[in-house]
Design a protein that fits this description.
Blueprint lengths: L2 H13 L12 H7 L3 H31 L3 H23 L1 H5 L1 H18 L6 H29 L5 H15 L2 H9 L6 H19 L15 H22 L4 H21 L9 H4 L2 H32 L3 H28 L5 H18 L6 H29 L5 H17 L1 H8 L8 H19 L24
Helix pairs in contact: 3-4, 3-6, 3-7, 3-8, 3-10, 4-7, 4-11, 4-18, 6-7, 6-10, 7-18, 8-15, 8-17, 9-10, 11-12, 14-16, 14-17, 14-18, 14-19, 14-20, 15-17, 16-17, 16-20, 19-20
Length: 490
């Protein structure tokens, strides 16, 4: 190299602060453009990890419960604690995604979910395990909106339906991943912690490595709001305890908590008024298309949660089918739901006005009505047909509702949209036992399971009606997107 060139290079290094200048071909932005599927793949793995957290807990907790000889009622509390942590943490932690940045929040969520997932599987006493399960739900509450917002920001708006459908298929596969790990490592005699580490670590590491492509986080509207976060947790906790406590249990002391919760709700609404990106997503609820999709999500989640409580026992008892014989059709229905979500998302990208959401809700309603009306120990072919209809309907509802929610919200508000969707679904799941008590008050349609399935069919039918709220033209407002929407930039 000529001396003049060497001197020029030294001067360039000094002016650059000692950093070697990167050529455009090797810069992070160019790398991200060359690998446009890495960020969406990381987001899909994040959503699959959210599902893994719940399925692993359901498998490990009975083992820990037996090891520690805990009371029978404690298992229900431990299983519900993660859902409670998720519901309470969704809105506050989703507000941190714009503050930290989508990619940084996603990676924090990956680490938090992995650490809390491992700690929650340690054999400790009831109260430490309960606290860790709550924190595990809170970690999931950060990972879920961060994953969905990363998916929304890294995929062009014209393809978000296919991305959401792929997420549905990934979640369906993830639900069976722990069982495969258990079967594969059972001979090694690993403790539950080793099994959980083997199930969680590979997808977590893969998601972390895939999320390194973005040069910098995209700036989203929002700011750190500690008072709003505190009011959110306190308000939701008091309302979730006070409403069923007063109206279901008839406990006046819990009714006082309801009154305090309503006062805090008013204070929270006042505190959030006028903010550019409020933690309480009132700006999104003002959009009819978004509000309608959120209502569909609530009603469909209520139907699904209610049916899940009684359906397997109803089929096993009525048709004399053992768990081994029923496992294969249920697994097939679960995979069919994932494939239906993928197909429904693909169709919504090509025809945004396609009736994917109402069709899915109608299939759910028809399936639950058929389950309730079939006479026991007869018409097994119709029983299989109802199971298939329920799987397809669930997949179409998942893809249709999530796609509509993400499209009808501004791109910068995708963390709040994701949190609102997961919040209503979590509330519906927490309310499932009370909905079962409500079903018992219905006229004499049959046994408890038949009444519950009939009420689930009603909820699914209402979801189909609610899917027509809003106009298709409302989707895409403030939405996609510049040609470089797949790459984060300031």
């Amino acid at each position: 190299m000529p001396p003049g060139a060497t001197l020029a290079r030294a001067e360039a290094l000094i002016s650059a602060g000692g950093r070697v200048p990167q050529s455009p071909a090797s810069s992070p932005a160019a790398e991200a453009e060359a690998s446009p599927f890495r960020l969406p793949a990381a987001a899909l793995l994040g959503l699959a990890l959210v599902a893994l957290q719940g399925s692993i807990g359901a498998m490990v907790l009975p083992i820990l419960h037996a090891q520690l000889a805990l009371p029978a009622t404690s298992l229900g509390w431990l299983l519900s604690a993660q859902l409670a942590g998720l519901v309470l943490g969704l809105l506050p932690l989703a507000s941190l995604v714009p503050v930290a940045g989508p990619r940084r929040a996603f990676r924090l969520g990956l680490v938090a979910a992995l650490v809390m997932g491992l700690l929650a599987c340690l054999p400790m006493g009831f109260w430490p395990m309960l606290a860790l399960r709550l924190l595990q739900g809170a970690a999931t509450a950060l990972l879920l909106p961060a994953s969905l917002s990363l998916l929304r920001l890294s995929v062009p708006g014209a393809r978000i339906g296919l991305a959401v459908g792929a997420a549905g298929l990934g979640v369906a596969v993830a639900l069976y991943w722990p069982s495969l790990v258990w079967i594969g490592l059972d001979r090694l005699g690993l403790p539950p912690l080793g099994m959980v580490a083997a199930a969680l670590a590979p997808p977590t590491v893969a998601a972390w490595l895939l999320s390194t492509t973005a040069p910098r986080d995209r700036r989203l509207p929002g700011r750190f709001d500690p008072l709003g976060m505190l009011l959110a947790v306190a308000t939701l906790a008091l309302l979730l305890v006070g409403i069923p406590g007063l109206f279901v249990l008839g406990n006046l002391l819990l009714g006082v908590l309801l009154v305090i919760g309503l006062v805090l709700l008013g204070l929270w609404i006042w505190q959030q008024h006028g903010r550019e990106a409020p933690l309480l997503p009132g700006d999104l609820l003002a959009r009819p298309r978004f509000a309608g999709a959120l209502l569909v999500r609530l009603l469909a989640a209520a139907a699904l949660s209610l049916a899940e409580l009684v359906l397997i026992h109803h089929v096993m008892r009525g048709w004399g089918i053992g768990p081994g014989a029923l496992g294969l059709p249920l697994a097939f229905a679960g995979m069919l739901a994932g494939l239906a979500a993928l197909g429904g998302g693909w169709l919504l990208d090509r025809r945004p006005a396609a009736p994917v959401l109402p069709l899915g809700a109608v299939l759910l309603a028809a399936a639950y009505a058929l389950f309730a009306a079939l006479p026991p120990d007869e018409a097994r072919a119709l029983l299989l047909l109802a199971l298939l209809a329920a799987g397809i309907g669930r997949g179409l509802v998942e893809a249709g509702a999530t796609t509509r929610l993400l499209r009808s919200a501004p791109v910068g508000r995708s963390p709040a949209a994701a949190a609102a969707q997961a919040l209503v679904e979590g509330i519906a799941r927490m309310a499932a036992p009370f909905l079962l008590a409500l079903a018992a008050m219905l006229p004499a349609l049959g046994g408890e399971a038949v009444r519950a399935l009939a009420l689930a069919a009603v909820f699914a039918g209402l979801a189909a009606a609610a899917s027509f709220i809003g106009r298709v033209e409302e989707e895409g407002e403030d939405g996609p997107e510049a040609p470089d929407a797949r790459v984060f930039s300031d």
